[in-house]
Amino acid sequence: MNTGIPIQYFLILATIMFFTGIYGFLTRRNLITILMSTELILNSVNINFMAFNRYLFPHKLDGMFFSLFIIAVAAAEAAVAISIIINIYRRFTTINVEDVDEMKY
Amino acid sequence: MTANQIMFILFSVMIVTFSILTVTSRKILRAAVYLLFVLVSTSGLYFMLNYQFLAAIQLTLYAGGIVVLIIFSILLTSHISQKFESIEWKKSFFTALAVIGGAIVTIVTILDHRFAASKQAAAEVNMRFIGKSLLWTGFEGYALPFEVISVLLIAAMVAAIVIAKKSGPSGSDSQTLKK
Amino acid sequence: MINFSYSIWLLLIPLMMFFILGLAGHKLGPRLSGLLGTSGLAIITMLSFIIAYSYFFGTPKNGEGFKAIIAYNITWLQLIDNLHIDIGVLLDPISVMMLIVVSTVSFMVHIYSLGYMKGERGYERFFAFLSLFTFSMLGLVVAPNIFQMYIFWELVGISSYLLIGFYYQKPSAVAASKKAFIVTRFADLGFLIGILILSFYTKTFDFITLTDPSGPAIAKTGGATFMGLSVITWSMIFVYMGGVGKSAMFPFHIWLPDAMEGPTPVSALIHAATMVVAGVYLVARLFPVYVMASPQALHIIAYVGAFSSLFAAVIACTQTDIKRVLAYSTMSQIGYMMLALGVSGYGGHNGLGFMASMFHLFTHAMFKALLFLGAGAIIHAVHSNFMTDMGGLRKYLPITHITFLIACLSIAGVPLFAGFFSKDEILAAAFEHNKFLFAVEYAVAGLTAFYMFRLYFSIFWGKETQYHHTPHEAPLTMTIPLIILALGAALTGFIPFNKLVTSDGLPFESHLDWGVAVPSVIIGLLGITVAWAMYSKSSNLPDRVASAFRLGYKWAYNKFYMDELYLFITKKIIFRYISEPVAWFDRHIVDGTMNAIATVTQVTSFRIRKFQSGQIQQYAFVYISGVIFLVILLVYIWR
């Protein structure tokens, strides 16, 4: 398919998004923002899948199905993560990840 | 410059900008909204690549479902007006260093690699075909992953309920059991 | 041929008894357990007598003498095709004779213990151990191969250990049991080495094959040699070492006197009549090998036996603990048996020593068990072990007195008592073989008579001692065995051993050698007279004699300082120069290494535990930078 855009552009875009997500994952203190960073990471992976599927194997739909499943997994993960976050909030009355450090030496 | 290229530039600029804003914004609700913009832009990319079904899923599930879920939990756990204190520069500097380094390595790798574009005709992506594939047990069928995902979703739902259920130190678990 | 396969019950019944009494004894209660153990022994005794009767008189002989019969055999360990270890029952004249000895004495001791141990803590345990001992000893006696013998040999050692340490709350008993076990263990090491050498060169464990004159042990003597002696001789010397330990010969005798810490019936059964003669039995069992393949080993046996008998007799003259006197007397008498074996030849009249040894073993079991049981009755009445606390007991303990006197007469070799016949045969055998050893044994005969009657007179005559309460005769359960054994001690001398138990199974003619017998009787009577003069009345004569031979008396009283010598060797030499460096090495090098590892681990852990901060983002940061670093390293730098 000729969109006039090289595949590398998609991949570079996904890379930037991915590492932005990692940056947020590593620097954010609020658990919910950490969760949002995770969503960014997953999304960038999805873009990769789609780009590969469209450019390299246009006659198949494997990439699309995997993206579909990743979205489903992301939804499940978000649900569980949020329930954990709420539980943590109840126990520690905070969702600051630096204050939740009981599992240390 | 074709329309495709213009759209791609538009979407990618939006994605990059809002991604960065998502992870740096000091107001949590705004961060959530920026995330929503990122996800919407991504679905735009999918439309561009001719995957309408996935783009719709992205919009409904991600932009509609997950972001709303996140906003709910924000409302449950934080004050909206609350601003985060800024991150200490040492932490952000070293993290940014590592992240930029990683990004450079990846981008160099991508640019280094020659992708052989396929010459084959693109498959038609219609709803009938997707529905058949998802329930198809034969070659290129996805019945098994589909079932696994369903079980996973059930498990996640049960887990979410069990974890989030009120269980104080007074041991209300045992009380529910008695009922 | 009579089928003897029922003889396996000899082993099964006491084993069963051991398990029943050992596991369920406290449920059964003391009375029932005692009766159960004793009735089991009654069955065994009956069986032994039936076996003995049908073996000696029921089998047709056809002029071939007594043959060894494998009554029961199962292959237990198949090592290689022709080397296997069996468990079974072997019947031949000496094992049948030993069956009689073991079961009779054990039965008597069981009956006696019913009364003697009454009211003791651990009554059921005592009977369980007695059953275990009986099982082990019978298994040892009927062993058809040397390995089974070794196994039961160790079992006997274990039961001896358990029974010596029966009063496990008494430190001296615990020490004595440990001493007995360790010393015999040491000797058994020699036994095991001997077995290994023997089986390596002969490729068999089987006694019948080993003692066959055309068998591998005897026929192949010309084989390998080491330091001038053939390997068979070396192995037989090592095997004899085990016998030395078990039979308390010099220099492994030190455990026997201490073993008297055990209950008196145990001393009678194990340390007088049965277990301690296991060494003699072992030599007798392998006698053809000793005689034909390793005469040098036989010489060693003769001299060790003679020296031990003299050594022990001298010590026995000075001891005051009556059980210790009897213990040294036992050692001395076993020395006699060893000497008799050592001077014996094979076949016909040459085998006189062998026959005499077995004969003496038999009679000695009777009168020594009687002496110990009598001593037990005396201790029971007086509550003391020391003859200085006794005197004039003949009025209070009439039955014990008479039976004790019979036993003393028997061991002193007074004519018509059992000891006279067997001792005379030994002296005759020694006379024919070696005049020097014969002279030593004459001296020992006199000493024996002296110390036995010293014991007798100072217990039953001598000064009238005031007792806290009037001593009374022991109950019936204790006096009946005394009477039965007294009959044995008086009459077993008339059993024609030369027709029954001989070195080659053939009967031969032997009769009293008056040239030997008359002087020995005179010497014995002399000893008795001296003892009578010194001890029958309260006088200061013994003290005067003791002070006249002050140095010798002191040495003998302290058992020639053998214990001190052992202690010196172990404490001052082995501990100081071997154990302590080893212990130092263990403590500083081995432990030190371990401690160093532990310390290093601990210190390192304390240093690095800050990494485990609990901050998830820190972990994630390390992880991601690690991944990036690895990608750079593996993809770009090190491809």
Summarize the structure.
Chain A has 105 residues and is mostly helical. Chain A has helices spanning 7-27, 31-56, 62-92.
For the structure shown, list the relevant keywords.
heterotrimer; B: 179 residues; mainly alpha; Four Helix Bundle (Hemerythrin (Met), subunit A); 3 domains; 7 helices; 73% helix; globular; C: 639 residues; two-stranded antiparallel sheet; 26 helices
What does this structure look like?
The complex is a heterotrimer of chains A (105), B (179) and C (639). Chain A is an all-alpha fold. Chain A has one domain: Helix Hairpins, CATH 1.10.287.3510. Chain A has 3 helices and no strands. In chain A, helix 1 packs antiparallel against helix 2 and helix 2 packs antiparallel against helix 3. The mean pLDDT of chain A is 87. Chain B has 3 domains: 85 residues, NADH-ubiquinone/plastoquinone oxidoreductase chain 6, subunit NuoJ (Four Helix Bundle (Hemerythrin (Met), subunit A), Up-down Bundle), CATH 1.20.120; 31 residues, no CATH class; 56 residues, no CATH class. Helices cover 73% and strands 0% of the residues of chain B. Chain C has a two-stranded antiparallel ribbon with strand order 1-2. Chain C is globular and about 110 Å long. Chain C starts with 8 loop residues before the first helix and ends with a helix. The model of chain C has no long low-confidence stretch (mean pLDDT 85). At the A-B interface, helix 1, helix 2 and helix 3 of A face helix 1, helix 2, helix 3, helix 4 and helix 5 of B.
The CATH class assignment of the largest domain in chain B is Mainly Alpha
Q: Major sheet of chain C: order of its strands?
A: 1-2
Helix-strand category of chain B: mainly alpha
Span from first to last CA of chain B?
Answer: 69 Å
Reported for the largest beta sheet of chain C, the result is: 2 strands, antiparallel
Determine the N-to-C terminus distance of chain C. Answer: 90 Å
Output the CATH topology of the largest domain in chain B. Answer: Four Helix Bundle (Hemerythrin (Met), subunit A)
Largest interface: A-B, 71 and 85 residues
Strand segment count of chain C: 4
* Share of helical residues of chain C: over 70%
Question: How are the secondary structure elements laid out?
Answer:
The complex is a heterotrimer of chains A (105), B (179) and C (639).
Chain A: H1 7-27, H2 31-56, H3 62-92
Chain B: H1 3-24, H2 28-48, H3 52-77, H4 89-112, H5 127-134, H6 143-164, H7 172-178
Helix pairs in contact in B: 1-2, 2-3
Chain C: H1 9-28, H2 30-58, E1 69-80, E2 83-91, H3 93-116, H4 123-141, H5 146-164, H6 171-202, H7 207-211, H8 216-219, E3 225-226, E4 229-230, H9 231-246, H10 255-258, H11 264-273, H12 278-285, H13 287-293, H14 295-316, H15 322-342, H16 352-382, H17 398-412, H18 418-433, H19 435-460, H20 476-491, H21 497-500, H22 514-535, H23 541-548, H24 550-557, H25 562-608, H26 616-637
Antiparallel strand pairs in C: 1-2, 3-4
